[in-house]
Amino acid sequence: MDGVPWWLLLLLPLLDISAATTEPCELDSDDTHCACNFSDPQPDWSSAFQCISAVNVEIRGGGRSLEHFLKRVDIDADPRQYIDMVKALRLRRLTIGAARVPALLLFGSLRVLGYSRLKELTLEDLEVIGTTPPLPGGGPVLGLSALHLRNVSWTIGGAWLVELQRWLKPGLKVLKIAQAHSLDFSCDQVLTFSALTTLDLSDNPGLGKRGLIAALCPHKFPALQDLALRNAGIQTPNDVCSALATAGVQPHRLDLSHNSMLATAKPANPGCVWPSALNALDLSFAGLEQVPKGLPAKLSMLSLSCNRLNREPRPDELPKVGNLSLDGNPFLVSGNSNPRSTVPSGVVPACAHSPLAVGMSGTLALLQGARSFV
């Protein structure tokens, strides 16, 4: 390993594989997907070299610390000497997971990857320790279109987004943050996500109304079209309306499915005005026994599927809606079906009375065939 370029040493511990194999890394037959799982007590890091031709690379560190790699690389070395080699990589999507990673190592790797054609980066089950290094003199280095983070903790706490954003070129379109340890951002330091169209904060059950207001930094998401808040501790749609109004966010599609909704008679803020751009709202798998008050006055699509409605909603309980979905509610199963429903007579939908109907994560929602906006 003495002759290995330093930038490859940086990337080695970040390669991630989910399948249990005899070798740490496995490359598929068409050289598209490569996955590494360095879970052995003495992993063979050199196995990662077979991933050099892959388009999609997953690297999982087996839950170990990667601090020892700092002794084997020169973080201050100029990566420009490897520009041609890095540009030649086919890498487009990279997943890094299951490790304790020094921030210096992580951001040093991002600096190298800035010369690649990487477009999607996923960080999951990571503990990022230490302070972030200074930004290179040339400014932001990484031109991503999508960034996904799941269960990532940072020594720097809530400042992590500000630090990470400094390394990203403008143009990020998709940001997904799940199981976050901190979403209380320093909004005065957060830069505007000028191109971001999709924000997914699903699977943050402790978020709630206050957390959502803290996470939606005012006027930082001018291009946002899709906002997903599945299993995010949301109690009423009106709570989200208030947060959107505070942040000045104008999504076109809003996914509030898989939250345990409260059947409040009156919304806490009855005067809240929903964004005029909003045309689709998903309230499926929310445990609703009645239609919530204070919904937008007009929608193109409203899903109330897989709830606990025992009767068909009256027109005065609903917004003016073009496409209404009520599938999987008890009133349909009991024989009081809406003649316009697509559920065949006598067929019990898979979601009816399911223990997964409340609080299901976005991943399980996809497995159940529920509609997803993101």
Automatic annotation (TrEMBL):
<dbReference type="InterPro" id="IPR016337">
    <property type="entry name" value="Monocyte_diff_Ag_CD14"/>
</dbReference>
<dbReference type="GO" id="GO:0006898">
    <property type="term" value="P:receptor-mediated endocytosis"/>
</dbReference>
<dbReference type="GO" id="GO:0001875">
    <property type="term" value="F:lipopolysaccharide immune receptor activity"/>
</dbReference>
<dbReference type="GO" id="GO:0070891">
    <property type="term" value="F:lipoteichoic acid binding"/>
</dbReference>
<feature type="disulfide bond">
    <location>
        <begin position="187"/>
        <end position="217"/>
    </location>
</feature>
<dbReference type="GO" id="GO:0006954">
    <property type="term" value="P:inflammatory response"/>
</dbReference>
<dbReference type="GO" id="GO:0071727">
    <property type="term" value="P:cellular response to triacyl bacterial lipopeptide"/>
</dbReference>
<dbReference type="GO" id="GO:0140104">
    <property type="term" value="F:molecular carrier activity"/>
</dbReference>
<dbReference type="GO" id="GO:0005794">
    <property type="term" value="C:Golgi apparatus"/>
</dbReference>
<dbReference type="GO" id="GO:0071726">
    <property type="term" value="P:cellular response to diacyl bacterial lipopeptide"/>
</dbReference>
<comment type="subunit">
    <text>Belongs to the lipopolysaccharide (LPS) receptor, a multi-protein complex containing at least CD14, LY96 and TLR4. Interacts with LPS-bound LPB. Interacts with LPAR1. Interacts with the TLR2:TLR6 or TLR2:TLR1 heterodimers; upon interaction with ligands such as diacylated lipopeptides and triacylated lipopeptides, respectively. Interacts with MYO18A. Interacts with FSTL1.</text>
</comment>
<dbReference type="GO" id="GO:0034142">
    <property type="term" value="P:toll-like receptor 4 signaling pathway"/>
</dbReference>
<dbReference type="GO" id="GO:0032729">
    <property type="term" value="P:positive regulation of type II interferon production"/>
</dbReference>
<protein>
    <recommendedName>
        <fullName>Monocyte differentiation antigen CD14</fullName>
    </recommendedName>
</protein>
<dbReference type="GO" id="GO:0071223">
    <property type="term" value="P:cellular response to lipoteichoic acid"/>
</dbReference>
<dbReference type="GO" id="GO:0034145">
    <property type="term" value="P:positive regulation of toll-like receptor 4 signaling pathway"/>
</dbReference>
<feature type="disulfide bond">
    <location>
        <begin position="34"/>
        <end position="51"/>
    </location>
</feature>
<dbReference type="GO" id="GO:0045121">
    <property type="term" value="C:membrane raft"/>
</dbReference>
<keyword id="KW-0391">Immunity</keyword>
<keyword id="KW-0449">Lipoprotein</keyword>
<keyword id="KW-0472">Membrane</keyword>
<dbReference type="GO" id="GO:0009897">
    <property type="term" value="C:external side of plasma membrane"/>
</dbReference>
<keyword id="KW-0677">Repeat</keyword>
<dbReference type="GO" id="GO:0045087">
    <property type="term" value="P:innate immune response"/>
</dbReference>
<keyword id="KW-0399">Innate immunity</keyword>
<keyword id="KW-0732">Signal</keyword>
<keyword id="KW-0333">Golgi apparatus</keyword>
<dbReference type="InterPro" id="IPR032675">
    <property type="entry name" value="LRR_dom_sf"/>
</dbReference>
<comment type="subunit">
    <text>Belongs to the lipopolysaccharide (LPS) receptor, a multi-protein complex containing at least CD14, LY96 and TLR4. Interacts with LPAR1.</text>
</comment>
<dbReference type="GO" id="GO:0046696">
    <property type="term" value="C:lipopolysaccharide receptor complex"/>
</dbReference>
<keyword id="KW-0325">Glycoprotein</keyword>
<keyword id="KW-0395">Inflammatory response</keyword>
<keyword id="KW-1015">Disulfide bond</keyword>
<dbReference type="GO" id="GO:0031666">
    <property type="term" value="P:positive regulation of lipopolysaccharide-mediated signaling pathway"/>
</dbReference>
<dbReference type="GO" id="GO:0032481">
    <property type="term" value="P:positive regulation of type I interferon production"/>
</dbReference>
<dbReference type="GO" id="GO:0045807">
    <property type="term" value="P:positive regulation of endocytosis"/>
</dbReference>
<feature type="disulfide bond">
    <location>
        <begin position="25"/>
        <end position="36"/>
    </location>
</feature>
<keyword id="KW-0433">Leucine-rich repeat</keyword>
<feature type="disulfide bond">
    <location>
        <begin position="241"/>
        <end position="272"/>
    </location>
</feature>
<keyword id="KW-0964">Secreted</keyword>
<keyword id="KW-1003">Cell membrane</keyword>
<dbReference type="GO" id="GO:0001530">
    <property type="term" value="F:lipopolysaccharide binding"/>
</dbReference>
